[in-house]
Design goal:
Length: 392
């Protein structure tokens, strides 16, 4: 299928059919598997064959279909599906690091990613250095010969900073470090992480893959020796596997991911164009718009910049909350990439635990709103935003 487009591969890659030759992907809702003989059981525990399974925590046919399909879409060798996006981030990092290792990471990250780096890994003796991800000189200064791993969000959540991913990968690899990239904002449709050289690519499949607010999930994608080596070993023993039901839901969602993401992206561009220079906003932030300071880099790296943008409402928290509370079509929630349009106030929700100084450094102001565009009519969404801004 390598010559087929992503839109086609998102529907057909990785299908496993039972003896009944079902058209739709089957859901194998079982936690265990049986063996015809004791010798067969022994053999499977020594080495699994291509289409053999032991226990759902280790692997399952439905989950394997999702892993294979997303690996094919990403253009990598293997994937391991997890219970959530944060289980994927945690699994990727914990499986590769030990006490005494050094990690360099961009500082603009989702709050839970910062928690894993600064609280969990640091507690276990991993040295963490945070840098301004936009500054290649900062990366050069921070990455050392003994750096074990580099971590970043290709497009940061919620401030939408863009990483020059190939340049960072080149710097890391020149020093023998691995690169783990959280690619949730970039989306599987527009992803460039594998081409840029990331060793492991992490998604919250809760976001664009499901994209309809139903199931939690995550996946770690990359080179087979890493995914089927330390990553699989860590996750199958610590229990971060995805359920077969959630995998089945996400397999069916992949049928429409290309259509959904492209429609949502078109809506973002329409709204950003209309809101640019609005008198009630101090800034509108979207890497795929010429007003973004990293527009040239974002355009060079990818076809589009995803389904999320940000605005900063003038007047601080009070005016911002009036705006949020006046919205009728947009929903206040802390998710993004849903079929329903969502607004989030990061300073008091997803990033509320950060010290104020850190919020200020990252640009997470009291007026900042993350806007995730869904599949509603763009005109309705624009009218909703404009009416709410009148209230603010």
């Amino acid at each position: 299928m390598t010559n087929w487009s992503k839109r086609t591969r998102a529907i057909h890659s990785g299908i496993r059919r039972s003896q009944y030759n079902e058209l739709s992907e089957a859901m194998f809702l079982t936690q265990g598997f049986v063996y015809e003989t004791a010798e067969q059981a022994e053999a499977r525990f020594v080495k699994l064959g291509e289409d053999e399974f032991i226990y759902a925590r280790y692997g399952n046919p439905t989950v394997a279909m999702l892993e294979d399909r997303l690996a094919d879409l990403e253009g990598v060798e293997a994937g391991f599906a997890t219970a959530s996006g944060m289980a994927a981030v945690n699994g990727a990092l914990m499986s590769l690091l030990k006490a005494g290792d050094h990690v360099v990471s961009s500082r603009a990250l989702f709050g839970s990613c910062l928690y894993i780096l600064e609280d969990v890994l640091a507690r276990f003796g991993v040295e963490i250095t945070l840098v301004d991800g936009r500054d290649l000189d900062a990366w050069k200064a921070a990455i050392r010969p003994d750096t074990r791993l580099v971590f970043c969000e290709s497009i940061s959540n919620p401030t939408l900073e863009v990483i020059d991913l190939k340049a960072v990968c080149d710097l890391a690899h020149a020093n023998g470090a691995l690169v783990v990239c959280d690619n949730a904002m970039a989306t599987p449709v527009y992803s460039y992480a594998a081409e840029a050289g990331a060793d492991l690519i992490v998604y919250s499949t809760t976001k664009h893959v499901d994209g309809q607010g139903r199931c939690l999930g995550g996946i770690i994608l990359g080179k087979r020796d890493l995914v089927r080596g330390p990553v699989e070993a860590y996750l199958k023993h610590t229990g971060g596997a995805m359920s077969p039901f959630n995998a089945w839901v996400m397999l069916k969602s992949l049928d429409t991911i290309d259509l959904r993401v492209r429609a949502q992206t078109a809506t973002v561009l329409k709204l950003v164009d209309a809101l640019e220079n609005h008198p009630k906003l101090s800034r509108v932030v979207y890497p795929g718009h010429p007003s973004h300071p990293q527009y040239a880099l974002a355009s060079r790296q990818a076809e589009a910049a995803g389904t999320v943008f940000a605005i900063e409402v003038k007047g601080g928290r009070e005016a911002c909350f009036k705006f949020l509370n006046a919205l009728e079509v947009f929903t206040i929630s802390n998710n993004f990439a849903d079929s329903k349009s969502i607004v989030t106030h990061p300073a008091t929700t997803t990033h509320q635990r950060l010290p104020q100084e850190q919020k200020d450094t990252l640009g997470i102001t009291p007026g900042l709103v993350r806007v995730s565009c869904g599949l509603e009519d763009p005109e309705d969404l624009l009218r909703d935003l404009l009416n709410a801004l009148d209230v603010a």
